[in-house]
Amino acid sequence: MKKILSLLLVAALSVSALAGCSNGSSNSSAAAAPGSSSAAELKTIKIGASPTPHADILKKANELLKAKGYQLNIQEFNDYVQPNLALENKELDANYFQHITYLNDFNKEKGTHLVSAGDIHYEPFGIYAGKTKALADLKDGATIAVPNDTTNEARALLLLQDQGLIKLKKDAGITATKNDITENKKNLKIQEIEAAQTARSLPDVDLAVINGNYAIAGGLKVADALAAESDASLAATAYVNVIAVREGDQSKPEIKALIEVLKSDDIKKYIEDTYAGAVVPSK
Questions:
Q1: pTM, whole model, 2 decimals?
Q2: Nearest-angstrom CA–CA distance, 153 and 168
């Protein structure tokens, strides 16, 4: 009987010792490695973006941003108004969907206080074939769709002018509308529609002048365009896409870190490899 009790005592002590070793090992492996950042320690930047290419670029940037102690919460928008209103109302920390000319125009129209924290990329505007497959085949009275917001309509009209299809008032510049057309030999009908709908309008119009991001979303390539803006043109600076923030926030550490990542060689290479000229990294 004593022998049996002794054996049971030894067994109990062995189990206790093993349990202690197991607990010690588990705690050790759960501890974070020195210098690493857990998800709970990462500071979140809430940013609004158009789905393509902006949100895609941000998703790639997020992989690099975590090494700097930040992560992105990307909110996707399909229009050009709500992302700015959400930023102004402090529902976002930043947004990435618009060019600098649109941002400045939006501030004037809406009384918002948004600024650029950094130039990121440029999207060449293109003229794409609808029912008419070549500029030379454009008939009298043909219909051309253009974006209906002020800055993008002007940009579209300037591109049509560059192709010799219309002439604008000399001082119209980047605020031109179809009312500024002074010469229209083919009596072209300029159809103003929401920018997001221009690619979808192609089956119903002869040509459409389309923003780069909406061309990509519509499955179009800049190589398919009948004509496109040059990256050496005025448009490359006047219409550079930016990270927008509230005035005064551009110096925040998290915003500086985001800009640094987005302007890095890794992101530039990603843009060049992914978009084949439809999106061009800013210099």
A1: 0.72
A2: 12
